[in-house]
Amino acid sequence: MSNAVIGSVLSLSQMTLTDPGTRSVDLRNTAAAELIMRFAARLAELYRAAGRDDDVREVLLAGERRRRPAQTLAGRFWGGLQDVTVGYGYRPARAAGWLLGLLALGWVVFGLVPPRAAEAPKAPEFHALAYAADLLLPVIDLGQQSAYLPRGWTAWFAYVLIGAGLLFATTAAAAIARRLRRD
Questions:
Q1: What is the pLDDT of residues 22-32, one digit of tens each?
Q2: Is this model's pTM higher than 0.90 or not?
């Protein structure tokens, strides 16, 4: 529902708000953007009361997207990043997709450029997939991350995987917890 409309008063797709006196308000400025978020929140409350959870997420996501043009450059960048990665938190399944994609990429990278053993005689056999999973998933310890040290540019890639893993695993865990709490 990308074009959420409350009667004929609020149109999120056209970024205008028309009051009963037929005066239009541009929703691209900050004050108007906050106004649209209040309307979106109210519509979401009505949908939530009616048990329409999918519509709640759609309305709130549309509101976030419409608010972005009124933000600073840094705010627009951060908002765009949130939108693409996890849909402002309203599309948590994207986090799982990102995790799987990064896992596959890590598997390939560390399969081509394996890290060196921290202590060669004691190190378990290296497995690129397990190493990538160990970097990405903060609560799982497969013993690979502590036994091997990335080298060169792959050290920076490992840091990116750790950071992305924290972000996306937390988002996915929060979505699962929310789903379990609702059911």
A1: 444 454 556 66
A2: no
